Amino acid sequence: MSSLEGLDLPALGIPTEAQYIARYCELTGRKSVDHLNFYKAYTVWRLAAIYQGIIKRVQDGTAASADAPRTTDIVEQFAERAWQYAMQD
Q1: How far apart are CA 34 and CA 38, in angstroms?
Q2: Domain limits at 86?
Q3: 25-41 burial string, b = 16+ CB within 10 Å, else e?
Q4: How far is residue 51 from each of residues 38, 47, 54, 61, measured CA to CA in Å?
Q5: Does residue 76 contact residue 31 with C-beta atoms inside 8 Å?
Q6: How many CB atoms lie within 10 A of CB 81?
Q7: Which of 26, 33, 55, 65 is most buried, taking the most CB atoms under 10 A from its CB?
Q8: For residues 78 and 58, is the Cβ–Cβ distance under 8 A?
Q9: 57 and 29, same structural domain?
């Protein structure tokens, strides 16, 4: 589901999740991010809702892109991932 999956992140200059969180904490003066899986679940659930809206616009003929998703498969994948994160927290 990740567009970055399988890529060599260090070679692309993209930080790992741990590096990203460490930098975020450094910049915000936090020691850690509590309940990280809650935030992941919220973010992925929000993406599911956004994609559901795109699919509805495809059905209505008002989608802005010809490459817009046409099936709910991606929505279901996002919702399942959100649920997995929610159950971990």
Answers
A1: 9
A2: 34-89
A3: eeeeeeeeeeeeeeebb
A4: 20, 6, 5, 15
A5: no
A6: 19
A7: 55
A8: no
A9: no
- For the segment 37-71, what is each residue's pLDDT rounded down to a tens digit? 999 999 999 999 999 999 999 999 998 888 888 88
Closest CA to 41 of 76, 9, 78: 78
Q: Residue 42: what residue type?
A: Y
Length of the chain: 89
- 49-62 burial code (b ≥16 CB/10 A, e <16): eebbebbeebeeee
Q: Is the pLDDT of residue 2 over 80?
A: no
Residues 53, 28, single domain; the answer is: no
